[in-house]
């Protein structure tokens, strides 16, 4: 399926199976409590606390976005300095994307489709990390003047200009400019500390898990990119990890009546 078809499929699944999705909810902490009868997970979030017999974590191998380490981000501009484009819809604004990978390229494409004026700041003279599709797409957008690409360009500082970020660059040829939003696509790191606090064991490759994604902590599963690893892999492998985990959860931890010897049989 295409990206649009995939998203439409997920929306339909959420609706048809009445899945309770808590949007705009940040997880602060999670831990496992052992009582006389059973162990339960307690998850503390910005939308209240939850308890669960089973916990599955699918926050991605790069679950913690990288932030610039050579200049400060003004706290007064917190709502205008973003690390993804899913937090809020941005339309008809002047937006700077910082980065040079596939995520940055897709942000540029997405923001342009939402009628924004988009500029991309990349620290190198040529793109070295883009897949062929995104490279062709970005070059085409540049040629059609749908996006302005500043390369090489490195931000030296960001200041608050009447509530909007004014960006200064180290290169003399790149003039300072005020934007409505700056979106950083600088990659990320595995949230190892969060996983370790739950008691998940690690080896030199990362978190340890079995063929169903279950860790050394009973009832605690990891899914998606977390099981694929830092080198990346097939998105099919990442998606199928959830199927294997759900089969295991249904067989061992639930009494829903929908499981047979081969796993999930019912709706």
Please render the helix and strand layout as text.
Layout: H1 3-16, E1 27-34, E2 39-45, E3 48-52, E4 55-57, E5 64-65, E6 81-82, E7 94-98, H2 102-113, E8 117-121, H3 132-143, E9 147-150, E10 155-161, E11 164-169, E12 177-178, E13 181-184, E14 188-189, H4 192-197, E15 202-203, E16 206-207, E17 220-222, H5 225-228, H6 235-252, E18 259-260, E19 263-264
Parallel strand pairs: 4-17, 6-13, 7-8, 7-13, 8-9
Antiparallel strand pairs: 1-2, 2-3, 5-14, 10-11, 11-12, 15-16, 18-19
Helix pairs in contact: 2-3
Would you give an account of this structure?
By secondary structure, the chain is of the alpha/beta class. The protein has two domains: 3-63 and 189-264, FAD/NAD(P)-binding domain (3-Layer(bba) Sandwich), CATH 3.50.50; 66-187, 3-Layer(bba) Sandwich (FAD/NAD(P)-binding domain). It contains six helices and 19 strands. The strands form seven sheets. A five-stranded parallel β-sheet has the order 6-13-7-8-9. A hairpin with a 2-residue loop joins strand 2 (39-45) and strand 3 (48-52). The longest helix has 18 residues, at 235-252. The two termini are 22 Å apart.
């Amino acid at each position: 399926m295409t990206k649009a078809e995939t998203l439409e499929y997920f929306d339909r699944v959420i609706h048809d199976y009445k899945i309770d999705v808590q949007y705009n909810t940040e997880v602060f902490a999670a831990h496992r409590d052992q009582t006389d009868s059973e162990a339960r997970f307690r998850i503390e979030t910005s939308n209240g606390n939850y308890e669960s017999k089973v916990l599955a974590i699918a926050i991605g191998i790069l679950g913690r976005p990288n932030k610039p380490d050579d200049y400060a981000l003004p706290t007064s501009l917190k709502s205008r300095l973003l690390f993804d484009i899913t937090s809020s819809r941005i339309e008809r604004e002047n937006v700077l994307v910082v980065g040079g990978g596939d995520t940055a390229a897709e942000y540029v494409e997405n923001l342009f489709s939402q009628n924004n004026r988009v500029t991309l700041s990349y620290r190198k003279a040529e793109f070295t990390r883009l897949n062929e599709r995104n490279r062709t797409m970005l070059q085409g957008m540049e040629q059609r003047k749908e996006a302005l690409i500043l390369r090489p360009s490195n931000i030296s500082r960001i200041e608050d200009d009447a509530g909007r970020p004014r960006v200064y660059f180290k290169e003399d040829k790149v003039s300072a400019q005020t934007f409505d939003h700056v979106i950083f696509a600088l990659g990320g790191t595995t949230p190892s500390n969060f996983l370790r606090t739950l008691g998940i064991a690690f080896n030199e490759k990362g978190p340890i898990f079995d063929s169903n994604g279950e860790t050394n902590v009973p009832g605690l599963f990891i899914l998606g990119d977390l099981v694929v690893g830092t080198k990346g892999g097939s998105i099919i492998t990442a998606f199928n990890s959830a199927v294997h985990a759900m089969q295991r959860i249904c067989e061992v931890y639930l009494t829903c009546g929908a499981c047979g010897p081969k796993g999930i049989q019912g709706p």
